[in-house]
Design brief:
The complex is a heterodimer of chains A (251) and B (182).
Chain A: H1 6-13, H2 21-29, H3 31-48, H4 57-71, H5 83-110, H6 145-163, H7 175-184, H8 197-205, E1 211-218, E2 222-228, E3 238-242, E4 246-250
Chain B: H1 4-15, H2 19-41, H3 44-61, H4 71-90, H5 107-116, H6 120-128, H7 131-142, H8 147-154, H9 158-181
Classes of the chains: A alpha+beta (251), B mainly alpha (182).
Amino acid sequence: MHDHPLDLIAAFADGSLSDEAEARALVESCPECREEYRTQTEVIGWLAATPTAEMTDLEKAALHRDLWTEFRRQPGKSPATPWWQRLAYVAAGLFVTVGLVSVLNNDTLNGGADSGANTTADGAFDAPTEETPFVAQGSDDGESAPEMTTETTAAATATTAAAGAGREESFALPFAELAEEARANQADRALTEGTDRDVEACLARVALDEHVVVDEIDLDQIYLLVMPADPEAEPIVTFVVLPRCEIVYVG
Amino acid sequence: MTVPGKEAELLTRVVSGDRDAFDAVMRNHEDRVFSVCLRILGDREKALDATQETFLTVFRKAGQFQGRSAVGTWIYRIAVNTCYDQLRRAKRRPSESLPEHVDPSDPSAEEAIESAALRPEIEAALAELPPDFRNAVVLSDLEGLSLPEAAEILGVPIGTVKSRVFRGRRLLAKQLGNQIDQ
């Protein structure tokens, strides 16, 4: 029975031994070792002859397009802004908007005059532009005011829901896209069998005990994606944050 | 080539929602991730899906990267796990299939596909390997990673990877010998 260490021979074949003396001696003296060496060397040679696989230009373009489709509601190219600063800008923006509407209404009632409202020529409100991805920046960066308002509102919703509990998400999730993806993968709802007790208790607390967890996103805190257990029910996706056990999005 | 510390900084910026940083991370690693997925799954379409899924996971879990390994190692570990998940879902042997969206007018397509293709008998023999052995051989012998790197990606001790690589090669040789005999 052959009892020479074949792993030593294999390591000798791929050049990973620091001291090859013992292995070399075995290969020279032992037929089985020699056969192992030949086998390992042959396979290494076959595999090493294959170049690294690469995507075609078209495949890369499709990959980037599909990924950015998933991320299109993410914060733009501006650097990160602390959560409290984003919240402050959002609040300031809403305050200015409300004030502007109020002043314009007064102007209309009083026969109109320059209200001195602090707006830019295209009507977007004057707000910090460089470091705040959630505030309307005017038309020069291609974003239309109504679209940015929607994003602002969505961000404010996500922000405020967490702020109410004294904490803040440091990362704005694309709730709508994730919900759409969860609905598209409804067939996987059965994967949620065996939900742990803490999650079950949490779902019961927020009146989602007839629901199942279809996905879980683990960032600075855990986001559960919850859907009705009944596949025939309307596929509404609810996001619940652990461990606060709080609903942050429904869609 | 990005300096390791610089890559970790890019990942920190990804957590903050910096799209440019994510774009840089993706472009640094997309070819290697695709190559690993293609070798493990043996199917170009599945490999493209796995590549996309890998980077989606990278994006979502960037905040969990703790810097205990290189960013590339962390990403390739996600890629391998993603491929494992695909294999489990498919529950069948990977098979070669024609890529659906290859554009006949794309001059690089045919060359890229042909150059990446393993010899059919090697492809078939690789597909016959148990997944643990296949992944070890792919990372070590096809992708050229060191045993410590492969061990970190696979989440097993170096000795385990070494053993899987050596035994994987033996099984490949045996499988190829059987194919030749047939």
